[in-house]
Amino acid sequence: MARPVNVTVTGAAGQIGYALLFRIASGQLLGKDTPVRLRLLEITPALKAAEGTAMELADCAFPLLDGIDITDDAKTAFDGVNVALLVGARPRTKGMERGDLLAANGGIFKPQGEAINAGAAEDVRVLVVGNPANTNALIAQSHAPDVPAERFTAMTRLDHNRALSQLATKLGVSVSEITKMTIWGNHSATQYPDLFHAQVGGKTAAEAVNDQEWLAGNFIPTVAKRGAAIIEARGASSAASAANAAIDHIYDWVNGTPEGDWTSMAVPSDGSYGVPEGLISSFPVVCKDGKYEIVQGLEIDEFSRGLIDASVRELAEERDAVRELGLI
Ligand code: NAX
Asked: Do 182 and 273 have their domain in common?
C-alpha cells in the first residue's frame, strides 16, 4: 500500500468539517488506493468537539485511515502536510464592517500561511474554503514565500456545481451532458457563471438556452445567491455540498480533469484574461499530471467582459484592503 498522505483540515469541528472528514477518510478525496492521515486543527474551545468527531471516524473502521491527530497549534497541524483544507474562518457577524472581517481572518490565515511555509511537504496543495476564500488564500500565500504560489487555491467549485445543476434543470438534461462550465472571479455575489463556453449537445449552453433574459435575470443571480437561499431554507449555511465541492476540487487537481472538459478553481492569476497578476481569481482550468493550467484563448464577449471585470474589481479592492491592514 502507498505511503499515507497527510491531510490537514482546519475548522474540523464545524459543519463543513463534519461533512468532509468521513469522505476523506473513506478514500473519496485521493482515491481508493491512497491511505490518509488526518490532522484536525481547531481553536482550543472546539478541541473537545473535534475529539468527538475523531471518535466517530475511528468507529467507521475506514481501512484507508492511517491515523488522526487533533491540535490547536497550526505548526503541529501543518507539519509534513500534503493537502491542506483551510475551512475554519471567522464569519461575518452583525454590525461587522468589511475591514473588521478581513482583519479577523488575517489573524487566522497569516499564522496558518507561516506554518505551511515552515513545515509543509514539498508537494503541498492548499485549498481555502473559509470566507472570504479568495482573499484568505492570498493572505496565507503571502506568508508562505517558500511554497510555490500556485499551490494556494480557493474554492469556487461549489458555485461551479450549482451552475451545472441549474443549467441541467433548465434544459432538462443530466449534469453529465454538460461540459466546460466556468465560474470567473470572486467566490461572492459578484462571481460570473459563464454559459457562453459551456457545452451541451454540441452547442454552447447559451445557444441551447436561447434566452438571454433567463441567463442574465435568473441563472446568474440564482447561482450567485444560492448560498443565501440555502441559509434561508435550511437555517444554516451549505455544508454537505461545500464539503463535496472541496473533495471535487482536490480530487481533480490530483487526478486530472476528464478529457475534453475543464473545471473552475480560484488560482493566482498569471495575467490571463486581463485579471491582474497575483489576484486569486476563479478561472477555467484543466488539471493534468497533478498540476492545473488556466485554459487559454477563450473569446470573451462584451457581456462577459463587464461581469468578469466587476468581480475582479472586487477582488482588487479586497487585496488593497488587506494590504492597507498590513496583512499581505
Ligand atoms: P462553522 O462555523 O460550522 O465551522 C467553522 C469552524 O472553524 C468552527 O468549528 C471554528 O471553531 C473553527 N475555527 C475558527 N477559527 C479557527 C482557527 N483559527 N483554526 C482552526 N479552526 C478554526 O462553519 P462552516 O459552515 O463549517 O463553514 C466554514 C467556512 O466555509 C466559513 O467561512 C464559510 O463562510 C465558508 N464557506 C465557503 C464556501 C465556498 O464555496 N468557498 C461555501 C460554504 C461556506 O459558506
From this structure: yes
> Would the pTM of this model clear 0.95, i.e. be above it?
yes
Instruction: For residue 327, tell me if it sits in a domain.
Output: no
pLDDT digits (tens, 9 = 90+) for 268-306: 999 999 999 999 999 999 999 999 999 999 999 999 999
- In whole numbers, what is the pLDDT of the chain averaged over residues? 97
Whether 165 and 98 share a structural domain:
no
| Known binding residues for substrate | 92, 98, 131, 162
Q: What is the total count of domains within the chain?
A: 2
Q: In whole angstroms, what is the distance from residue 4 CA to residue 49 CA?
A: 25
The separation between CA 150 and the C-alpha centre of its own chain, rounded to angstroms, equals 14
Which amino acid type is present at position 275?
A: V
Ramachandran quadrant class, 271 (left: phi over 0; alpha: psi -120 to 50; beta: rest): left
Which of 8, 38, 43, 72 most suits a substitution to test ligand 1, by most atoms within 8 Å of the C-beta? 43
Q: Which three cell numbers stand for residue 225?
A: 445567491
Of all protein residues, the one whose alpha carbon is nearest to atom 32 of ligand 1 is: 130
Q: What is the pLDDT of residue 271?
A: 98
Q: Which three cell numbers stand for residue 183?
A: 465560474
